[in-house]
Amino acid sequence: MSRDRNYDRWYAARHVRILVSPRHRLETFGDTLFNYHMISELQDHPGKIRIRAGRLLAHKPTVIVPRMGAIETEGLSPEAQAYIESLKDFQECFRILRYGYHFKRDNFSEQIVTDDIETVAERVKSAVEAKQDPFAAVVQGEDDPWDIAIVELWRHEVMRSVNNNIKELGDKLWSDGQK
């Protein structure tokens, strides 16, 4: 670990490897609880591998709709003001999804084993895959700051889920509008 904590954060984020992604993506209309296993080699102790297990609660995405009526038009031409007014008819197109998460320390465990990190990673992957938990993930990263790997897992799952979440939200809005 260096004296530059900012460098340490970015270094840790760049060295995260997602070994097993959850088979299930983030829920569109509810929270998602992922079971993670995080593998890291102890700094200055080659062959000592820490295995952490815990849960990551990803909150359902929140739809943010900008208030077009709150846009101030001071100094704009009448054409620009009229254009903003016309955008109000399409403000549903400006929806944004916001994702949140809660890092839970319940069901948290930690153990240290002596072995090669690749061997431990394969063993943990095999054990997780054998359970067939669609919400399980295995990540490998730096031991300190280790929880950056969990944030990267969350970020990865948001990126993997966003298109499906947008489609499902659009389908629901479309079907609700047709009733």
Largest beta-sheet details: 5 strands, mixed
Ends distance:
59 Å
Strand numbers in spatial order across the main sheet: 1-5-2-3-4
The secondary structure category is alpha+beta
Overall strand count: 5
Instruction: Supply Rg.
Output: 22 Å
Amount of beta strand: 25-35%
User: What is the number of helices?
Assistant: 4
Order of helices and strands: HEEEHEHEH
The amount of helix comes to 25-40%
What's a concise summary of this model?
With 179 residues, this protein is an alpha+beta fold. It has one domain. It contains four helices and five strands; from the N terminus they run H-E-E-E-H-E-H-E-H.
Structural notes for this entry:
- The chain has 179 residues and is α+β, with helices and mostly antiparallel strands.
- It has one domain (14-63, 99-177).
- 36% of the residues lie in helices and 31% in strands.
- The protein has four helices and five strands.
- It has helices spanning 5-14, 78-87, 117-131, 148-177; strands at 17-20, 32-41, 48-64, 96-114, 136-140.
- The protein has a five-stranded mixed beta sheet.
- A hairpin with a 6-residue loop joins strand 2 (32-41) and strand 3.
- The chain is elongated and about 70 Å long.
- The relative contact order is 0.26.
